[in-house]
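Researcher: Last one for today. Full complex below.
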Amino acid sequence: MNTAVLITILATSVAAGAPVIYATVGEIFAERSGILNLGVEGMMLMGAVTGFIVAVKTGNPWAGVMAGMLAGGLLSLIHAFLTITLHADQVVSGLALTIFGAGLSSFVGQNYVGVQGPQFAPIHIPVLTDLPVLGPLLFNYDVLVYLSILLVPLAAYFIHHTRPGLHLRAVGEDPTTADVMGVSVARTRYIYTFVGGLLAGLGGAALSLAYTPGWTEGMSGGRGWIAIALVIFAFWEPWRAMVGAYLFGGVQALQFNLQAVGITIPTYYLNMLPYLFTILVLVFATGERMKRHLGAPAALGIPYIRGER
Amino acid sequence: MNQPSFSERLPRISFERRLTAPWWLAWVIPIASVTLALLTGALIIASQGVNPWEAYKAMFMGAFGSGFGMAETLVKAIPLMLAGLGVSIAFRMKLWNIGAEGQLWMGAWAAAGVGLYLYPAWHLPPWLAITLMMLAAMLAGGLWGAIPGLLKGVLQVNEIITSLMLNYVAISWVLYFVDILWRDPGGLGFPNTALLDRAIWLPKLTWIPFLPPGNRVHFGLIIAIVAAVILWFLLNRTKWGYEVRVIGENPEAARHAGMPIVRNIILVMIVSGALAGLAGMAEMSGVAHRLQRGLSPGYGYTAIIVAWLAKLNPFGVLLVAVLFGGLLVAGDQIQLTMNLPRSISDILQGLILFFVLGGEIFSRYRIRIR
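Model: Here's the assembly. Have a good evening.
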C-alpha cells in the first residue's frame, strides 16, 4: 500500500468520524443523566434535512448548522417529555422518535433531493496545508471536523471536572441521592437529553453540509444507531467515543479505498462492513465491560418518581 | 444548595399509582391518543398547503372505503401480522428484537432460492415446493434472529443494536442476489429476479365475500391467523409459554425457579425471526412473485409499532396490523391522488406511538397538580 493511499484512508477516517463523534458525545450526555434515547437516527436525519434546507434558503451554511441543531434538539424534547414527565418506556419512545424523524425528514426534504447547496469546504491554511504528509493528514479538513475534535476534550472536562458535570453523573448514577442533595433530577435530565438532541442534529448537519453535501432520504445510513453502539464501546467516556468514531471512519475509508489498492470485493459486501464492524466492536466492548465490571450509569433507562423505588 | 430548585418553583405535579382504573379509561385513552395524533398530523399536512380534512378523507376512503381498498389493506396487513407476531413474542421476554426487517428479507431470499432454483431442478410438486419455501424462510429468518439471540444470551451483548445492524447486512446481502447473482437477464434492465412459476405462488383467497374479483389477498392471511392461534396457545397453555412470560416479567423470580433463561432467549429469538422470515416469504410468493428491490417498505419496523400497540396479544396483533396496513395503503393513495409524499404514513405511525405512549400514564397513574 503506498503512502498516498494510506494518507487518504487516514484522512477520510477523520472526516467520516466527525458526524459520528457529535452524535456519540451527545448520546453520552443523555445517557449519563439516565435517559436512553434510541431516537438518534431520527434526530440526525432531521438535523441533516433541516440544516440543508436552511443553508439553501439562506445561502449560509452556519445558519444551516444552527437550524440542524435546533431540529435535533426539538425532537429530543418530545422524548424528554414522554420519558421524564410522563415516565413512558424509553426504548419504545426512542424507536418512535426514529420512525417519526425518518418519516418527517423525507416529508420535508422531498423537494430538496439532488439540490446543490452551500457546504463547508476544507480550510486551506497557508503553509500548513501544503506540508507534505502532515498537510493532508492534519490540516485539510472542514471547520466541522475541527470542531468535533475540540468537542471531545471539552465534553470530557465538563463531565469529570465541573460542578454541573458532577450533578449530571449523580443524576444518572443515583437520582434519589441527587434529589435529596437538591439537584433537580427532571431538570437535569431535560437539559442533557436536549444537549444530546442538539449534538445529534449537529451530526446530521455535518453530513448534509460537509461530509456528503446534499440531501438524500435516509442519508445517515444507520449512523445514529452506530453512535448508540459506540457509547457502549466508549464506556460513556468522550475520549473513547472519539477512538470508536475514527475506527468506524476507518472502516468507511477502507470501504471506499479498497478498490484503489487493487482488492476487488463486491460493493455489496463492502457496504456491510460498518455494520458488521459495529457488532464486533459491541461484542468486544461488552466482554471487556464484564471483565472489568464497568457499568452503564446505574439509573440508565429507569424513570425517576420521587418516593417510589 | 439553598436556592429553591427549578421543580419547586413550578406547580408540583405528583403521580399516584392507580390500583384500579375506571373501565372507560381503557377506551377513552386510546381514542383520545389517536385523535390527537391525527390532529398533529393535520398540522403537518396543512404545512404543505393541502387541506388535511380532504387528505384524511382520501386516505380513509382509499384504505377502507371500497372493496378494492379493503383488499389492498389486507394484503399489506399480512406481512405486518406475521412480523408483528414475531416481534411480540420477543417483546414478551423484554427482548427488543428490532431486526424483523432483516429477518423478513432473509426469509424472502431463502424462499426465492427454493422457488427459483430447487423447485425446477428437483421437479417438486407445487404444494411441496410451497411448504419447502415456508420452511426455508423460517429457517433463514430464524437463524438471522438467532445471531442477536446468541450474542445476548451468551455474551450479554445489547440485542437492540445487533439486531438492527443485521438489518443493513441482510438487505445488502439480498440486494447482491437481486442485482447480480439471481438477476433476470430478461428483466429489461430492472433489477429483480425472474418471476416464480405461477404454480408456486401462494394461492389467492377468491372465496372471501365482499372483496372484488381480481384482488390480491392471498393464503398468507390464513398462515398469519394460524400462526396467531398457535402463538396464543403456546404462550397461554404451555409450560414454555409460562416460562417466557415469567422471564419477561420477573427475570429474578425466573432465575430462582431455575428456568433456562439463556436457552429461552435464543429460542425466542429464533421463533421471532422465523415468523418475520415467513412474512418475507408471504410477501415474495404471494404479492411480488419474485425477489426485488423495495420488496418491503419497512414492514419490519412498522411491525414493532403494531406489536406494541396490540399490547403483545397475538389476536390484537392481527387487528392492529389491519389498521396499519390501511395506513400504508392510505399513504400510497394520497401520494397518487393528492401529490403528498407517502412518508406521511411513517409520520402518522410515529405520532400515534407518541400519543399512545404518553396517554398510557393516565391509565397507570392518577395525576394531581398542586
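Chain A has one domain: 3-292. The first helix of chain A runs from residue 3 to 32.
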